[in-house]
From TrEMBL:
Enzyme class: transferase
Protein name: glutathione transferase
Origin superkingdom: Bacteria
A GO molecular-function descriptor: glutathione transferase activity
Source species: Peteryoungia aggregata LMG 23059
Keywords recorded for this protein, A-Z: Transferase
Residue ranges constituting the GST C-terminal domain according to the UniProt record: 103-227
EC numbers, comma separated: 2.5.1.18
InterPro entries tied to this protein: Glutathione-S-Trfase_C-like, Glutathione-S-Trfase_C_sf, Glutathione_S-Trfase, Glutathione_S-Trfase_N, GST_C, Thioredoxin-like_sf
Domain GST N-terminal, chain residue ranges per copy: 17-98
A Pfam family the protein falls into: GST_C_3
Length: 227
């Protein structure tokens, strides 16, 4: 078992509880945290929270995440929400490979890519293309054609930009894998379930090679199940 941040276990001290991650496996953001735990090889527990259901337990969960999103983390009573804060806490608070560059420029690149993922890619590639293009038709629901075509028109430009980053180094922020790569994985995993996503990626060789590298990581394979 992994000791917690700052803990020096000595006689008479209770061991810290395992970090508890709240959230459902289908969630892009929950999966980012799961991948980071796996990369660090940190043991944790997970309580499935289906944020889209109206269950009683969800109203209790709102005490932990006041904005009703997943994930959230409880580490020995220390409550945290916002995935970027959670993944940095896991990286900095536990042993295992460091997932953030120390060089200022590379760290800025990592932060930039996480910002791009949160502010552009997640909405268009997941909600615009995957949800409208794959999930809604599979559920027999009507597609929002405007939403879908807007996302399809933006995606090639988004991938062109990501391809340029991927062409600079094996990983998004340099020679070593970082939180930037791990943050992108669940977004790309949904996007590539759409045939259009596959086609757009095929036109970007550096990004395709990056996807082959990152998607073969054990941390990515072991968090593949979404239900
Ligand atoms: N800024 C949040 C975003 C989390 C987020 O949007 N999670 C989605 C699931 S992937 C969610 O909870 N959606 C529920 C909703 O929007 O009502 C973070 O970084 O943790």
């Amino acid at each position: 078992m992994e000791d917690g941040p700052g803990s020096t276990l000595s006689t008479g001290q209770l061991p810290m509880a395992l970090p508890l991650l709240y959230g459902a496996n289908y969630s892009v953001y929950v999966r980012i945290a799961r991948i980071v735990f796996a990369e660090k090889e940190v043991a944790y527990e997970q309580e499935q929270v289906d944020i889209f259901s109206d269950s009683e337990s969800n109203s209790r969960y709102r005490m932990i995440h006041p904005f009703g999103k997943i994930p959230a983390l409880d580490h020995d009573g220390f409550l945290l929400f916002e995935t970027s804060a959670i993944t940095r806490y896991i990286d900095e608070g536990f042993s295992g490979p460091c997932l953030q560059p120390t060089d200022a420029k590379r760290r800025a690149r990592m932060n930039q890519i996480i910002g791009i993922a949160d502010n552009y890619l997640y909405q268009e590639l997941v909600w615009g293309i995957y949800v409208e293009g794959v999930e809604k038709p599979a559920r027999g629901e009507a597609r929002d054609h405007g939403r879908f075509s807007k996302a399809l028109s933006l995606a090639p430009r988004y991938l062109e930009v990501m391809d340029a980053f991927a062409a600079q180094a094996p990983w998004m922020a340099g020679a070593d894998i970082s939180l930037a790569d791990l943050h992108l994985v669940p977004i790309f995993a949904y996007f590539l379930k759409a045939e259009q996503g596959q086609q757009i990626l095929q036109q970007r060789p550096a990004l395709s090679a990056w996807w082959d590298r990152v998607s073969s990581r054990p941390s990515v394979k072991s968090t593949d199940q979404v239900s």
